[in-house]
Amino acid sequence: MDFSYNGQAVLTDINLTIREHDFMAVIGPNGGGKSTLIRLILGLLKPDKGKIRVLGERPGKHSQALGYVPQNVHINDHFPITSLDVVLMGCLGTGGRFGQSRRTRKECEKDGLVTLERLGMAKHARKKIGELSGGQRQRVFIARSLMTRPRLLLLDEPTASIDSRGQEDFLNLLETLNKDVAIVVITHDLFSVSNYVKSVACVNHGLHYHSQEEIKGQMLETMYECSVEDVCRVQVLSQVLPGVVGHKNSGGRDGNP
Ligand SMILES: Nc1ncnc2c1ncn2[C@@H]1O[C@H](COP(=O)(O)OP(=O)(O)OP(=O)(O)O)[C@@H](O)[C@H]1O
């Protein structure tokens, strides 16, 4: 798949499969096209060339199968809306009596509370969203995205506003959710997610894919010596990772990883 904004190529020759129960880190330099890739999967943008399939159909057809938490969710701190209200928004706009699957508002509220509980946020359900910390808000937004019971959860830099201790808790939470839902997480901090993810997609206009076997081996350890920006440069990658060259899943445009 290729994609450009106003004729300016952003993603070229992208070939990626996200499998059920995958936990994929999407890494790459600023402006490399990570968020654009997510928007394409969501069906908010259309590729110039090639195609994208979500559960075998065009993106948008199964919009409820995708949960999305964008990079910066701006909330007016004074807006009088509780955590539970935010979560219930996940039920809206999908038809039926109160959202998808014809749930009543009461049923949705019950589901919302269960989801908040799952995310360790039940005690904050009636708190105003503006009174929560960055990490707590992030959990509320994830709860909202889970309300349609998605098969794939797409998270754009979810740990950016969370301290290192909170990040570990958060990643443990994602690991638990991953039992039920595939997760794709854009991150600039490969180090903290490396123990959790099953695959890595390195997006720098092109895409380099690394399977579970690769990242469980020495690869990430070697990568820590470089910044994500370096890792995403083909030349550097092949220098520090000679064993990876020619792997069947890591082919770049010219067949190199
Ligand atoms: N709506 C848009 N119109 C035109 N160009 C855009 C638009 N959105 C993004 N771009 C450009 O596309 C390129 C990729 O942007 P994108 O946001 O996908 O990168 P990213 O890898 O997510 O970056 P970051 O790590 O900084 O969030 C950038 O050069 C950006 O300026």
Automatic annotation (TrEMBL):
Keyword Ribonucleoprotein carried by entry: no
The protein, known as = ABC transporter
Sequence ranges assigned to domain ABC transporter in this UniProt record: 1-230
Q: Which GO terms describe its molecular function?
A: ATP binding; ATP hydrolysis activity
Pfam families the UniProt entry points to: ABC_tran
The UniProt entry, under InterPro entries, shows:
AAA+_ATPase, ABC_transporter-like_ATP-bd, ABC_transporter-like_CS, Metal_Ion_Import_ABC, P-loop_NTPase
User: Which species expresses this protein natively?
Assistant: Desulfobacter hydrogenophilus
- Zinc-finger as a keyword of this entry, yes or no, is no
Q: Which CDD domains match?
A: ABC_Metallic_Cations
Q: Which UniProt keywords apply?
A: ATP-binding, Nucleotide-binding, Transport
Annotated Gene3D superfamilies: P-loop containing nucleotide triphosphate hydrolases (3.40.50.300)
The record's comment on protein family reads:
Belongs to the ABC transporter superfamily.
Q: Could you tell me which SMART domains the record lists for this protein?
A: AAA
